[in-house]
Amino acid sequence: MSLLDFIADDSPRTLFPLEAPTIIIGRGQQQLMKYIDDEVFATTDYHPTFVQAPIAFALKNRWHTRRVHVLDPVATLYLYNFVRTFSSLFQAPAKNALKRRFGYHLKSRSVISAADEHQEFRRRILEFKKTYAYFAKLDIANCFASFYHHDLVSALKPSVGEQAANRFGTFLRQLNGGRSISCFPQGYFPTKAIGNLFLGFIEQSVELQSPAVIRYVDDVFIFSNSRSQLEADVFRLQVILSEKNLYLNAAKTDIGDTKSSMQLPKTDEIRKSLLQKRETAVAGAYDDEPEPVHLLEDEFRYLSSLISGTDVSEEDVELALALIIDEEHAERLARLVFERYPHLIKNLYAHLSNAVYEGDTLWDLVGSVAADREAHEFSLFWCVRIVLRLYDWDKQSAVMLARLYDHPKATDTVRAAVLECRFNSFGLVERKEAALRNAGANLLAISAAAGLRELEPGRRNQLYKYAASSSPMMYQVTSALQRAPGARE
Questions:
Q1: pLDDT tens digits, residue range 218-277?
Q2: What's the 3-state SS for 293-315?
Q3: Which of 56, 123, 226, 422 could potentially form a cystine with 413 if both were Cys, beta carbons 3.0 to 4.6 Å apart?
């Protein structure tokens, strides 16, 4: 997998997937890498740095959010290239080890499906429950947001060398405006892989005496035939974590005997089959041509009945979003997401991208978000994505985008999603020109520059010329965009 393929494949899976970074990297990868090596990491007193990343907030559930750094093309390229350069660090451990991590790994330089890893993690849990008498199910609270950049640098140095580790620390610090806490970008495969590797100190610790310790990122399972040994390890683990400013989530801590847990009511066969098919569907949801998931007649009826009731659970909506793609159910699911579970709007987008949908309901729901003065930026962002992906470009679509762009709760991330689109009629080109005039190196200017890529070359290059003079970053961006797609540098 090439570096560009790595970025392009993972981008749609991120929480706020802007297209501009991939477009710009695709046209100027070598130039941007040289800029990073020669200028961003220069040792002179005055030189360009990584630009402080704007912060967006994704919905974790209806009431809670996740803090997200929205990366520009230079930061994106550096981060993905770092993991690809040191890909040997992120290979999956031996499957049958008693103490190992699961999660975000590479096979050579290609990504291993996180869904497959999670399925293997669950299989190992069931296997250990048959082998050991007791287990502890643990969760690290607010994990990635709590990483301290010096701890990450120290952990990386033995494997990548002092210079590369220190550069990664510089990247984190500059990205976060000099702050060493809450500096770790969330939602990107490379940071998931780095975070998963960093947390390896858990299962590698000789302080934990239980024979089996497995972990999927921040979810930890400990197994033992001695309850006292298991409980002692739970206390030891909290001491180990505290040294890295990490703590267990008390609400998600569960210690029990495996005999009782194995006797809990089993999932009925139809739902079990659907959950397995969901793993396949989720793994390929963002592929250009995802493999269709074929439901048996009884599976379809089961899912249909689940989402037709008056009190539909979040879990059932998630399951149906991954598997049902007919128009009638798409409309029902859209209502459930917009009205009850807005944090699932990203799932809805992936679902509708593969669904047969022609009704007015979705358009009306997007309009309701545009009219809601308290709408969350996560909903606004994905409504922009829905309009651009699922509807023809016309005056009606342009008006809806303008409403979302001008929304009182719209952030730069929401506006950037509008500005980066290739359309320039119905007043969009004027918005993009205004963003470029106030360029600097901000997200709006970068997105506007990408959005003007198909403008008449003479006018486009004139706009790029003046934007390029505003900052070293904008010079790199506009230089890349003036190359034809796929042109050799």
A1: 999 999 999 999 999 999 999 999 999 999 999 999 998 887 765 544 557 888 788 878
A2: CCCCHHHHHHHHHHCCCCCCCHH
A3: 56
**Which one-letter DSSP state was computed for residue 411?**
-
299 near 316, Cβ under 8 Å? no
200, with CB counted inside 10 A (0-12, 13-18, 19+), is middle
- Cα distance between residue 400 and residue 406, in whole Å: 10
CA angle 28, 78, 432 (to 5 degrees): 50
Q: What are the backbone angles phi and psi of residue 283, rounded to the nearest 5°?
A: -60, -35
Spatial distance between the Cα atoms of 458 and 124, rounded to a whole number of angstroms: 60
What residue ranges in 108-246 does DSSP mark as E strands? 110-111, 134-139, 212-216, 219-224
Length of the chain in terms of residues written: 489
3-state SS, residue 457: helix
Distance in angstroms (rounded) separating the CA atoms of residues 406 and 403: 5
Q: Which amino acid is at 58?
A: A
Q: What is the reported pLDDT for 438?
A: 74
Burial class (CB in 10 A: 0-12, 13-18, 19+), 64: exposed
Question: Which residue has tokens 């000789």?
Answer: 206
Identify the CA nearest to 418 among candidates 19, 7, 12, 67. Answer: 19
Instruction: Quickly count: other Cβ atoms within 10 Å of residue 283's Cβ.
Output: 17
pLDDT for the residue numbered 281: 75
Q: Is 224 in a helix, a strand, or coil?
A: strand
- Are the CB atoms for 58 and 66 separated by under 8 Å? yes
Chain-centre distance for alpha carbon 416: 17
d(C-alpha 73, C-alpha 187), whole Å: 16
